[in-house]
Each structure stands twice: as C-alpha cells, then as structure tokens.
Amino acid sequence: MTYYIQTSPRRMLRRWMSSDQTPEADHYLPVNVREEDDGYTLTAVVPGLKADDLNIQVLDGVVRIEGEYKLDDGDYMLAELPNGKFRRTLRMPASVEADKVEAKIKDGVLTLRLPKAESALPKKIKVNVK
C-alpha cells in the first residue's frame, strides 16, 4: 500500500509568510505579494509615513520592513489610526537580488520591487537535433 502526502497550500503559505510579532512590534503590517516572471512585487499601506520613517532590509531572500507611526500628543475622543512600532518579516520563495531591490512610497502605499536572483530564474535549454 502506498500513501501520498501532500502539504496543504495554506500550511506552506503560513511557513512562507511569518509575522515577526515581538514585544517591540505593536502592529501587524498587512502586505500583498505578487509573483511575476522576473521577480516579486510587494505592496503595503503605510498611511502618513515617509521614506525616512521606514527601515527595509533584504538578506538571503528575507525581507524585513520596520517603522513607527507617530501621533501627536493630545486627548482624542476616538483614536483608530495606527500608533506605535511595526515590523514585518517575509521569506520569499526564491532568492532575491538584494542589490537591485527598488522601493517607493506614493500616496501612502509602499511598493517594493524584488527581482529574482539569476539562479532562481528558469533556464532555457536548447535541444540540438542531429
């Protein structure tokens, strides 16, 4: 008798996308990740933050985004906007060229362009006919 074991896509996704919720991180940063032929595009909503407010690191296929939302001091009747530090760590499924990563913020949306490493791209092999 043969048993075939297949991992659940949800379990693999949970392992792939780990959230780094430590005592220093007050908030969880939701992201969208889209795979393209030559890389990945990661987007996250970071309202009110500028490029200087974020720390983005890429090392060995792991992307880490850190930052802090700062509210002015004062008494609020209702405070629903994010306040405090956040950190998000993602392990990409394939290696990433850290030197070629591009980041931009426009209208409160952070967009990271993460190109795949040359070793992770599919190789085209030509077949010779004799």
Structural class: mainly beta
Largest sheet: 4 strands, antiparallel
Provide the succession of SSEs: HEEEEEEE
Cα-atom radius of gyration? 19 Å
Secondary structure blueprint with pairings:
Elements (H helix, E strand, L loop, with lengths): L8 H8 L14 E5 L3 E7 L8 E6 L2 E8 L14 E8 L10 E5 L2 E7 L15
Antiparallel strand pairs: 1-2, 2-7, 3-4, 4-5, 6-7
Describe the structure.
The chain is mainly β and 130 residues long. It has one domain: Immunoglobulin-like, CATH 2.60.40.790. Helix content is 6%, strand content 35%. It is built from 1 helix and 7 strands; from the N terminus they run H-E-E-E-E-E-E-E. The protein has one helix at residues 9-16, and strands spanning 31-35, 39-45, 54-59, 62-69, 84-91, 102-106, 109-115. The strands form 2 sheets. It has a 4-stranded antiparallel beta sheet with strand order 1-2-7-6, with no helix packed on it. A 3-stranded antiparallel beta sheet has the order 3-4-5, with no helix packed on it. The termini are far apart.
